[in-house]
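Study this:
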Amino acid sequence: MYSFATKILKLLLFIVNGQMNVINKQKLPTNQPFIIVCTHKSWIDVVCLGIALYPLPVYFMAKKELFQTKLIRKLLENLNAFPVDRENPGPSVLKIPLKLLRQNKVVGIFPSGTRDSEEKALKNGAIHIASKANVPIMPAVYIGPSSIKGLLARKKRTIIIGDCIEVPKLNNDKETIIKAANELISNEFKKLIHTESNLI
């Protein structure tokens, strides 16, 4: 269902908004699993990231509140989404993404939460997962409309892939490692947004 939905959404967005620009897709690893972290404002950037990486499927981390009804839960699971408690992230949050990465899958995390604490928790979660699974983090930014109105106004959509971030094993100095990796992700986001502004 993921492949079918991605193709349909790609066609629909092309009809209403035109061709999406994907920059630096060649930077994505081709022979190993990885975590992709992307800026986030609405459902549109989630869809656009999936389209940008297609035919590579992405397994998206989504807030648990979306999985409360049986029908929606089944739909989201078929679209490669899995639940996470953003209010109280704990060790159990690592279980599903680690399992997926060990199955050679790609995990997508959107750390731009509605609160600074949520954003920090999600970034830290991505860093912990990358360290435990021994996989790289690939930063990405979405720049474009975040509403149906913006899509219909044909504001251009762009996904830019950044440079690979390797996370070492977390040891006794893990706080320093997490802080450094967090700064790398944030700086890469800023650099990619600046890159896009220079392309206009």
Summary: Helices lie at 2-17, 43-53, 70-78, 92-102, 116-133, 148-152, 174-199. Residues 2-199 form a domain with the Glycerol-3-phosphate (1)-acyltransferase fold (CATH 3.40.1130.10).
